[in-house]
From TrEMBL:
Membrane topology listed for this record: Multi-pass membrane protein
Transmembrane segments: 29-53, 222-244, 264-281, 293-309, 314-334, 384-405
Any GO MF annotation of the entry: ABC-type transporter activity
Lineage: Bacteria, Bacillati, Actinomycetota, Actinomycetes, Mycobacteriales
Compartments it resides in: Cell membrane
Name of this protein: ABC-2 type transporter transmembrane domain-containing protein
Source organism per UniProt: Mycobacterium cookii
InterPro entries found in the cross-reference section: ABC2_TM, T7SS_ABC-Transporter
Length: 449
């Protein structure tokens, strides 16, 4: 007769060809785990390095802006000259008015802006006249304002790009100015200093828009805080799954759905406590927090969504589900988050991932709460929407999968009960004793709830 293992067998149950001691002498036994681990580490290195090595080469619709406040005609000419120098595929250059510029800088929609001040034309004319006379000459300036609250590296790229654009326009205006002075005076300036001044009439002045306060890690605190929330959800789900299964054991006819619901409840309790703990530690370490209650609630939502989704994956696929969660919530998310390297400076694959990757949505919410006064249009509303959608998907997936497994178990139990209750045939006393049959063990390896 054959013996059947319990229906709640673990997904790690060995296959018959690996159950014998001879399996340890096979190439498959030793090679398979190593190959799987190497594949995971190879993907990890590929995702991490490919997203950070060449940000300038990968630029794609990188958002910067120009603001012309000049009352004279020269400002418009400078804007036109700067626009001509940008690659339309690499940069998304927006010509904004003053209100639009402030709104987009405050909401971290652009990484930097070049501002042509109101007196630019008049100062340029005065500069051309005074370049031929002794005395101190003040050059007209173009103000380059970077936005570190949108991202430290993004602000750096924007500053470098706009400085190059100003230098290019400076050279063009310098040539024109030298020609105009020569036409007006009838001769070129004899002084080398005057020639140099006329050749470089525009100065690019770098400023920082709304600098980050102390305690933000130069703009990394939002990314690190979001990463901590994701790790709490993922690691918490793994620990809860292992602990609950260990306490319940493999025996018994327990419902997979009820077991999953108990794990979800524990994930929620863990989210409430962990988010509060993170907030307490962050404030004690000196991290500026503008709205503690909103940040705590946001942390609870993220940890719960990740924990419930990860628990559902483990309920569906066992140990493989934990690996799927690791890829989804951590490995694929680090380079598509948009903090360490702007999304617009990564390969297109990461830009596609950022549309749904939980880490990018978490970063947007954390950045809005920590740096951008909790504005809904600064990424917070989008983050809440996408996190809520992820939570609903995780709930539905877990409910459907565990219900399917429970129904399979319910159909299998009557047949097992009949086989167990069947009366054994009487054996004559003088009947010969047959040698024992080899026992065949079969197992339906549904994932552990």
């Amino acid at each position: 007769m054959s013996e059947t293992q319990p229906r709640h067998a673990t997904p790690d149950t060995p296959s018959p060809d690996l159950a014998s001691p001879k399996a340890m002498r096979t190439v498959r036994f030793w090679a398979l785990p190593v190959l799987i681990a190497l594949a995971v580490f190879g993907l990890l290195a590929t995702f991490f390095l490919s997203g950070i090595l060449r940000p300038m080469t990968n630029l794609r619709h990188f958002p910067i802006a120009l603001l012309n406040e000049d009352a004279g005609p020269t400002g418009a000419q400078v804007v036109k000259g700067m626009m001509a120098g940008f690659d339309n595929d690499a940069y998304d250059v927006r010509v904004l008015n003053k209100d639009q510029a402030k709104q987009q800088m405050d909401n971290a929609q652009i990484y930097g802006i070049a501002v042509i001040p109101p007196n630019f034309s008049s100062k340029l004319q005065a500069y051309a006249k005074s370049a031929l006379t002794p005395g101190r000459v003040e050059r007209p300036t173009v103000i380059i304002s970077t936005n570190p609250r949108a991202g430290a590296l993004g602000a750096s790229i924007a500053g470098q790009t706009l400085q190059r654009a100003v230098a290019m326009v400076d050279h063009m205006v310098g040539e024109r100015l030298s020609q105009e002075v020569a036409q007006q005076t009838g001769q070129k300036p004899e002084s080398g200093a005057a020639t140099l001044l006329l050749a470089n009439p525009i100065e690019g002045k770098a400023t920082v828009h709304n600098p980050l306060p102390d305690g933000t890690g130069n703009g990394l605190s939002a990314f690190i805080y979001g990463l901590l929330l994701l790790i709490a959800g993922y690691v918490g789900s793994v620990v809860i799954n292992m602990s609950v299964n260990s306490m319940l054991g493999q025996a018994g006819q327990r419902s997979r759905l009820k077991t999953l619901l108990s794990k979800w409840a524990l994930n929620l309790v863990l989210a409430l406590l962990t988010s509060a703990g993170y907030l307490l530690i962050a404030t004690n370490l000196g991290m500026p927090v503008q709205n503690s209650l909103l940040l705590w609630l946001f942390g609870v939502l993220v940890i719960t969504a990740v924990g419930i989704s990860s628990t559902s994956f483990i309920a569906a696929w066992g140990g493989v589900g934990a690996l799927v969660s690791l890829f989804l919530f951590v490995i694929l998310g680090l380079q598509s988050s948009g903090e360490t390297v702007p999304i617009e400076a990564t390969p297109a694959f990461f830009a596609w991932l950022s549309k749904f990757e939980p880490m990018h949505q978490t970063f947007l919410g954390a950045r809005a709460l920590l740096y951008l006064d909790g504005r809904a249009d600064a990424g917070l509303s989008h983050s809440l929407l996408m996190t809520g959608i992820g939570l609903v998907i995780g709930l539905l997936f877990g409910l459907i999968v565990t219900r399917i497994y429970d129904r399979r178990d319910d159909r299998a139990r009557p047949a097992e009960a009949v086989a167990a209750s069947a009366p054994a045939e009487p054996v004559p006393v003088d009947a010969p004793v047959a040698p024992p049959e080899a026992t065949t063990v079969t197992a339906e390896t549904y994932p552990e709830p």
